[in-house]
Amino acid sequence: MIMQRSTFNGSPIALQGPDRFADRMRRISDGLLDEGALVTANLRISGGKAPWFALRVWTGREKIVEKSLDAMGVRSLVPMRKGPDLRRRGRVIEGQMMPVIHGYVLVQMMALSEYLAGLLGLEHVIDVLGGCDRPMRLSDNEVSRFNGLARNGNFDWERPVHLVVRAGEPVWITAGPFCGRKATVVTPSKKGRGDVVVSIDLMGGEVPVTVPLALLKKL
């Protein structure tokens, strides 16, 4: 007869200190981000150009994530535009500033998976667009162009756009983290302004994204 043991000798590890597992992981993430920010800063000082990436974050938390990254020395950007005007009793209240593309923050960092993985430890961050191992890259020139268009009001909600799109119609995204990608219109628009929802094929799956109508071009 073979006897089976139901008891184990030893003691649990990492339970002696006051820190929780989440606290320890946060310190690891912060250390990676500090190192990544320093390496990226040294590259800029030497005249190099680190690539940009897009972080997917919880909608409405874009500026909070940007502020957290800036505090760590990580260069980040949330291009902004003016939102829809409000009309109350005959008065027009100018729209508030809002992200050009909700749910995304642009980050400049060396393209090392361990540094990008450190970004996932930040509060409100969901993932890196494309994954940490093979992230979707943006050039410094494209980020500057995208931000310049936003600052010039090209993506403002009330800006007229001579474009009508129908559900199921293929379109081309002309700037930003999805620049140069084909998308499919989900919500039609005949208003000639505002936002539309499109579906983008990423890593074998369809990702819905809300973008300004002005960001699209018909194929």
What's this model, at a glance?
With 219 residues, the protein is of the alpha+beta class.
Break the fold down into its secondary structure elements and pairings:
Layout: H1 21-45, E1 52-57, H2 62-71, E2 76-77, E3 80-82, E4 86-88, E5 91-93, E6 97-99, E7 104-108, H3 113-119, E8 125-128, H4 140-151, E9 170-173, E10 182-185, E11 195-202, E12 205-212, E13 216-218
Antiparallel strand pairs: 1-7, 1-8, 2-7, 3-6, 4-5, 9-10, 9-13, 10-11, 11-12
Helix pairs in contact: 1-3
Strand-residue fraction?
A: 25-35%
Rg over CA atoms: 22 Å
Summed over residues and divided by their number, the pLDDT gives a mean of 83
Can you summarize the main beta sheet?
A: 5 strands, antiparallel
Task: Catalogue the unreliable spans.
Answer: 1-6, 11-15
Overall strand count: 13
Strand order of the largest sheet: 12-11-10-9-13
Order of helices and strands: HEHEEEEEEHEHEEEEE
Task: Name some characteristics of this structure.
disordered N terminus, four-stranded antiparallel β-sheet, alpha+beta, single chain, five-stranded antiparallel β-sheet, 4 helices, 219 residues, 13 strands
Structure overview:
This protein has 219 residues and is α+β, with helices and mostly antiparallel strands. The protein is 25% helix and 26% strand. The protein has four helices and 13 strands. The chain has helices at 21-45, 62-71, 113-119, 140-151, and strands at 52-57, 76-77, 80-82, 86-88, 91-93, 97-99, 104-108, 125-128, 170-173, 182-185, 195-202, 205-212, 216-218. Strand 9 and strand 10 (182-185) form a beta hairpin. The N and C termini lie far apart (74 Å).
